[in-house]
Amino acid sequence: RQGGQFVVADINYPADGKQINDLITKSLDIKTVDLCTSDPANHEELEVAEDKAKGVVKFFKNDGSLLAGVVVGKTRESGEGTYVREASSNDVHLTSESPWLRTGRLDYVNQEIASIKREDVNSVTVTTPQGSYVLKAEKGDKVLMDGVPADKKLKETDAKSVLTALQGLRFDDVNAPAQVEGLTFDHKYVARMDNSTEYTLELAKKGAKTYLRARAVYTSPAKVAIDPSKQDSPEELKKKEAILLAQEGAQRFTLRHKNWIYEIPEWKAKYLLMPQADLLEAKEKPVEARTETPEATEAVPALSLTPPPAASIPATEPNKPQ
What we know:
This protein is α+β, with helices and mostly antiparallel strands.
């Protein structure tokens, strides 16, 4: 415990209160059904010796002394029940249900950096060593880019993925700045929300890994003025509440992330780092109408409508005997 919250000790990163509460609840929910043995010689075979156990959880007081603990051993051969013992006792009990204890250091932190809804995004500016570009969210699901060359068109699917890259953004690991050296943050991703919040992510590549640091700021000049002598309408109260929530949200985001550098998965980094050239493709050339040239054909004699001349008959004298 550090102040009013828990932290993961080896990285000093704030723990997720829900995960801590779940761990306590799981430990309290263990119900025993039978006492199996009190002989420490049987601990190793039943896998309730700490170095053989499936899981061990201990709760300590402020002075470092043990408050409570449980050691989870193997499942009974019949498949019904699990061997468990209290960390301060040699008694081994059989329990009908045993908790699954998460032991990874990131199992007890909130790995979500941001989760921004698509409909809340106004625009995104991406800056890489190759230059900058701006994507704008349009009505429906459409995305536009400023300055697209006449012979190019936007890859809409990839553009949407860039615009929504803050949706469900999580980290694979977290480090204090002093723990990660030699980083050059030469990429920037800036997302502007409809509520005037601006999220800025600075990114660095080192080998196959991508590192990120994040901050947010409320950019609107609008201020919330409270006049005790004036009764605000419900609409005005709603507007003021939205401003206060946006301001508070930006402050919380920055306070949570400002002292940390995150390693993010490559499938997400791909869109946060994407240069403009990878979002454009050549337009398809229109199909030209082809003129068919008839093949040459043999000449057909013209049909004559003039009747042929009558056959020539030799002339004879009339009534002349033959």
